[in-house]
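User: Fold this; tokens only.

Assistant: Input:
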Amino acid sequence: MAFRDESPYRVRAFSDDPAGDPIDTERDCRLHECVDFYAQPELAHLSANRGNDVIRQFESIGSYVHTTEELLVGAKLAWRNHARCVGRKHWRTLELIDARDAVTADELAQACWEHVRMATNGGALQSVITVGPPPLPAGREFRILSPQLIRYAGYRNADSSITGDPAHVDITEVCLRLGWKEWHAVPAVVNMDLDEL
């Protein structure tokens, strides 16, 4: 197998074709995206060992875990490169809350409220991204059912008219079933298993 010369990381180019044309599989594409990510100037300060370790792990099991710094750099680059986002000029100021170690819905909800505190920043708005845990073994994963952390409630009246925000009638009804008392802002709903609501 050939090695790519344009990267400081030793990556085998996947090819079963004697002509050397790469086989275009999802795994191969993800591996090359990984190599390209570690070749970004924003990660140039990392040792080549980190990139090689990641590539070995990816080749072995098909995935790897970002460090918090790598996660932040990836989020910043994704925001910078999103052509339709009007706020992307602020990509360098993005802050990260790494909540990947949350193991309960309450811990993830606390990370969400920390997100609101950091983002509102005493009135001087700050760009923040919060990253929660990946799916757990057996496919269990956290869900934030609320479309946004702070939204206005919507109530279905007896005559089928709506009071408040019509876009949030369903989540308001879920919150009421969970024991929430009527108010203007709908609480964020975070859970582990949808069937436990």
